[in-house]
Design brief:
heterodimer, A: alpha/beta, five-stranded mixed β-sheet, globular, B: 256 residues, mainly alpha, 12 helices
């Protein structure tokens, strides 16, 4: 059988820099006229988002695509979905493709939920009849039946996500391409979506799944492709590739992440995170954070205009992608009425870091107070490495074999009946005296 | 081409979405489709008909000018909306695949609703002024076809250009204004001296408007050669517009 997706020597180059983005006609004309007289001084840099990528996926395979932010995964998906075209190389796709690069594509605020189901379905390639046939199931899956006839500008972001995924889940394509859309949404819904994708897999559909949730990737996909710096670093059995990938996430010298250079982020950017620092309570940057230490997480930001009621927050994940905890100024009901433009920082003071030694990833969020408007979102924008420590004052340094979290605690033996033996030698004597 | 057929439903959806959204929250709703050309007609009648005494081929001036305004409003209205159709839907273009041409095409289809409403009013006006159409009325579907071709051709070119050069949308209102005066809307073609007419016939809107008027209203015999020139230019524009769109659409998602 012909393979579902074949990619051969794919390369994609972007030019950045200079005044090239959004030129006007006027400038272009001026440049044309003064050609040869005045040299243009805008530097145009080239970025190779993808370089010499080749692979092929058979029908019915479920393949995971992993890699760091900016590695080229999204570019690859865009090329496979025919949204953008390669600079060189070729792709061949055999079968109907549905690409979920973002949930709710085609949603228009003024239209009702019902109307948007049809709009979204049509954009994703369903015919009107198909949508009608599956309408009930879609509404059931999304759980927004009561609001079907309200314009979706009144929906919460969670509802929009559910509706978008509900339509997408009922697409019935030959090839499904999913790009990190599950980063948003609550745990229950994420599980529902993953189950929906697993059902697709049973139906012998081909699935290409991009995610940072490595546990989900390992669960769902038998094969994994690791993309790094625009090239394929590894392609093979999921477990091996994932282990290699996790092993490569190197440690930094100080525990700080510089986010200025990260391109792969969402949000309108009016205010953005610049740097994350981990400090001790007196303000010194830390090289090492140990389990149980008090720590201050400093979020440096830069606002290009005054911001009304922002909410700063983050989500913390284990290396495998398990969601551990989240916190934000919204969670603490802290209202920042108006933030001035310019650089600044926010401190989160943690009294005791109840995490066992392991590597943790932080995804950063900056929204407005309602959660509707997204200013900045960097998935896995910071890495926190926690060292083992004597957390129970027991003389033992415990690590993540004892779990990911621990609680401040003590054991109280006053309810037991002991013989009051104070040392192992005592205990041996008492035991001897007890045996008949 | 085959792909466009497969995506035909999406074309209707885009047009339907445009219409729905335009009328959903508008207080005046469908009335707006009429209000704009009617008010323009009244203003032009007062200014050019009454004050300036422009001739109108023996037909009452309001009817004369309105008949040309109906196809013109369609053309200029769709052009203005379609030029922004790609840029306004940048979220769609960067996330989902569909033939990009469906966006300006959807605007062109959506505009037909206003065109039909305007035409109905035109028919009403014709009754009011007791003007009977010529037999050429039967050719009017052809004229509408030419109108569609022209509008789609220019819209595709402008929409594609606007993605790369964002100031196209600022230049457009000025271009449309000038274009209107170069088209025989407020004045009859007969007013232009013979020797200049061939040049002005290069304006494809010339043919569109003259032919539309000729089908519906009595007047001087129509100069087929001039109309033919305009139609030829229309076809050329359509082909060039389509070609330009096709060539540039590969980069839309990258630069939008």
């Amino acid at each position: 059988m012909k393979p579902a997706i074949t990619v051969e020597k794919l390369a994609k180059r972007y030019t950045i820099g200079g005044a090239d983005q959004g030129t006007n006609l006027r400038e272009s004309l001026v440049r044309l006229i003064t050609l040869g007289f005045i040299r243009s001084n805008s530097q145009e840099q080239t970025i190779w988002a993808l370089r010499d990528v080749s692979f092929s996926i058979e029908q019915g395979e479920t393949v995971g695509l992993i890699g760091r932010n900016g590695a080229g995964k999204s570019t690859l998906l865009k090329i496979l979905s025919q949204i953008t075209y390669p600079t060189s190389g070729s792709t061949k796709v055999n079968g109907r493709v549905a690409a979920l690069l973002e949930v709710g594509t085609g949603f228009h605020q003024e239209l009702t939920g019902r109307e948007n189901i049809f709009m979204n379905g049509s954009i994703l390639g369903m015919t009107k009849k198909e949508v009608e046939r599956k309408f009930e199931q879609i509404v059931e899956f999304s759980g927004v039946r009561k609001f079907l006839d309200t314009p979706i500008k009144r929906y919460s972001s969670g509802m929009r996500l559910r509706l978008g995924f509900a339509v997408a889940a009922h697409l019935d394509p030959d090839i499904l391409i999913v790009d990190e859309v599950l980063a948003v949404g609550d745990a229950a819904f994420q599980k529902k979506c993953l189950n929906a994708m697993a059902t697709l897999r049973q139906g012998a559909r081909t699935v290409l799944f991009v995610s940072h949730n490595l546990a989900a990737v390992e669960n769902l996909c038998s094969r994994c492709i690791w993309i790094d710096g625009g090239e394929i670093r590894m392609d093979g059995e999921s477990r091996r590739v994932i282990e290699a990938y996790m092993g490569s996430m190197g440690a930094n010298d100080t525990l700080a992440s510089d986010l200025d250079s990260v391109e792969n982020r969402r949000g309108n950017g009016k205010i953005r995170y610049r740097r994350i620092e981990f400090l001790s309570p007196d303000g010194t940057p830390q090289k090492v954070i140990r389990a149980g230490d008090p720590v201050v997480i400093r979020f440096h930001y830069f606002a290009s205009e005054p911001i009304l009621e922002p909410s700063f927050g983050f989500r913390m994940y284990s290396e495998m992608g398990t969601f551990i905890t989240e916190s934000s100024t919204w969670h603490h009901s802290i209202a920042v009425p108006l933030l001035e433009p310019g650089a600044g920082y926010l401190d989160l003071e943690i009294d005791c870091l109840n995490l066992m030694s392991a590597k943790y990833l932080l995804s950063l969020w900056l929204t407005d107070n309602t959660g509707e408007l997204l200013y900045d979102n960097v998935e896995h924008g910071a890495i926190l490495e926690v060292e083992k420590a004597n957390i129970y004052q027991s003389g033992r340094d415990l690590d993540s074999r004892s779990g990911l979290v621990f609680f401040p605690q003590r054991w109280d033996l006053s309810g037991t009946r002991t013989h009051g033996a104070q040392s192992p030698a005592d205990a041996a004597r008492v035991r001897e005296s007890l045996t008949p | 081409m085959r792909e466009l057929w497969r995506y035909r439903e999406l074309l209707y959806f885009f047009a339907w979405r445009d219409i729905k959204v335009r009328y959903r929250q508008a207080a005046l709703g469908a009335a707006w489709a009429l209000l704009q050309p009617v008010i323009t007609m009244i203003m032009f009648t007062l200014l050019f008909g009454k004050l300036a005494h422009l001739p109108s081929n023996g037909i009452p001036y309001p009817l004369f000018v309105y008949c040309a305004l109906v196809p013109w409003t369609y053309f200029s209205g769709v052009l203005a909306l379609a030029s922004n159709s790609l840029v306004n839907n940048d979220q769609l273009i960067t996330k989902v695949y569909f033939p990009r041409v469906l966006l300006p095409a959807g605007t062109a289809v959506a505009g037909l609703l206003d065109f039909i409403i305007g035409s109905l009013l035109l028919v009403g006006l014709m009754f009011y002024y007791h003007v009977t159409p010529r037999w050429a009325l039967l050719l009017s579907p052809l004229v509408v076809l030419v109108m569609l071709l022209l509008t789609t051709g220019v819209s595709m070119a402008m929409a594609a250009a606007n993605v790369r050069y964002r100031d196209v949308k600022y230049a457009l209102p000025f271009i449309i204004q000038t274009w209107m005066f170069a088209t025989p809307i407020i004045y009859p073609a007969a007013m232009i001296p013979q020797k200049f007419r061939p040049f002005l016939a290069l304006n494809p809107c010339w043919g569109m408007v003259e032919a539309f008027r000729a089908c519906l209203l009595p007047g001087p015999p129509v100069d087929l050669k001039l109309i033919g020139t305009s139609v030829g230019v229309t076809i050329a524009i359509f082909i060039c517009g389509a070609y330009y769109f096709q060539r540039t659409q590969r980069t839309f998602a990258d630069i939008i």
